TrEMBL record:
It comes from Vagococcus allomyrinae. The lineage of its organism: Bacteria, Bacillati, Bacillota, Bacilli, Lactobacillales. Residues 1-143 form the DAGKc domain. Belongs to the diacylglycerol/lipid kinase family. This is Diacylglycerol kinase family lipid kinase. Its cofactor is Mg(2+).
Length: 318
């Protein structure tokens, strides 16, 4: 099957470093005499508008019914946030495959699906593939604001979301990204926010059973092991599995918390008595107090949450 590539490029990802990666990819395509159309994003959310336009005019589900035609393949160049926008813009068009060349700072989805984070290697991989594969993505339904969407990586309320909110306004992300140290930016901001985040009451419902926490600190639902730029929050999570992994960490004394962070970095935190792991195809979390929220590193407003999670299969050209 011949391909017609449609590239959505977020040159602003990785604090602008994505522009260089995108130019490398476009030059490689020119050298190989592979034709493409490229669309650069001009503002936050522009990837959504471009995707919706392509959906009306160009994109088709796999497999293509028209023989001898070139398949219009959507290719995303950006970070997890850009991918998040496109997955949500495609909504229930699960049979329209998404190809991905990671150019962001964290690139957790690429880590989660074992895709090379070197843009040229990811391009080689894309050009070798002959058909898309199904992967799971998280589906969430927030009952209070009746908001629905998808996440390729994770959705969290509590400290991880507070870190996202803080790092989006801090200069450290730009500084660390300049030196290609996106995950250090996350850790640096994390340490700044840790002292401020208070514990909050949380209810978790898994397979019809409710569990209450008086003093939750982190509550993250994840599709694969990674968050925050390569931190393995649930090392055993598997993007190919239908099950969702939820991890709840309790607010503990700062000294114990630093010890837990050490264990987290060595992937030994899951046995801690303060870390609670749930795995199911259907999970609900309820926070009656206002908390920060994040979906794939994109901020959700600070508010109470009542979220129902499932997974859906969608095609990726990976
Ligand atoms: N032209 C633009 N100017 C400013 N922001 C943009 C522009 N185009 C897209 N964006 C925004 O950039 C944000 C961040 O992009 P993205 O998450 O892909 O990169 P990143 O944060 O560097 O990577 P990662 O999420 O993998 O750490 C997205 O929220 C997107 O809406």
């Amino acid at each position: 099957m011949q391909l017609e590539l449609h590239l959505i490029i977020n040159r602003h990802a990785a604090s602008g470093n994505a522009a260089k990666s995108a130019d490398l990819v476009l030059s490689a395509l020119d050298n190989k005499q592979i034709s493409y159309k490229d669309y650069s994003t001009d503002y936050p959310g522009h990837a959504i508008d471009i995707t919706r336009e392509l959906l009306k005019t160009t994109l088709t589900p796999w497999p293509d019914k028209k023989a001898n035609s070139r398949f219009p393949l959507l290719v995303i160049l950006g970070g997890d946030g850009t991918l998040h926008e496109v997955v949500n813009a495609l909504d229930q068009h699960f049979h329209i495959p998404i190809a991905y060349i990671p150019c962001g700072s964290g690139n957790d989805f690429a880590r989660g699906v074992s895709l090379s984070r070197d843009p040229l290697m990811a391009l080689e991989h894309l050009l070798e593939i002959t058909e898309p594969q199904p992967y799971h993505v998280l589906h969430y339904l927030e009952n209070i604001q009746e908001e629905e969407g998808y996440a390729t990586n994770n959705i969290g309320i509590g400290i991880d979301a507070a870190i996202v909110a803080r790092s989006n306004v801090s200069a450290s992300k730009q500084t660390f990204n300049k030196f290609k140290l996106g995950s250090l930016s996350y850790l640096y901001t994390a340490i700044q926010v840790l002292t401020k985040q208070k514990g909050f009451p949380l209810m978790v419902e898994v397979n019809g059973k409710s569990v209450g926490f008086d003093n939750a600190f982190l509550c993250t639902t994840t599709n694969h092991p990674y968050f925050g730029g390569g931190i393995a929050i649930v090392p055993e999570a598997d993007v190919k599995s239908k099950a969702i992994d939820l991890v709840v960490v309790e607010r503990i004394h700062l000294l114990k918390l630093f010890r837990l962070i050490g264990q987290l970095l060595k992937r030994k935190h899951m046995s801690s008595p303060y870390v609670h792991h749930f795995k199911s195809q259907n999970i609900r979390i309820v926070s009656t107090t206002s908390q920060f929220g994040q979906a794939d590193g994109e901020e959700l407003d600070s508010r109470p949450f009542d979220i129902q999670f499932t997974t859906v299969e969608r095609l990726f050209w990976l």
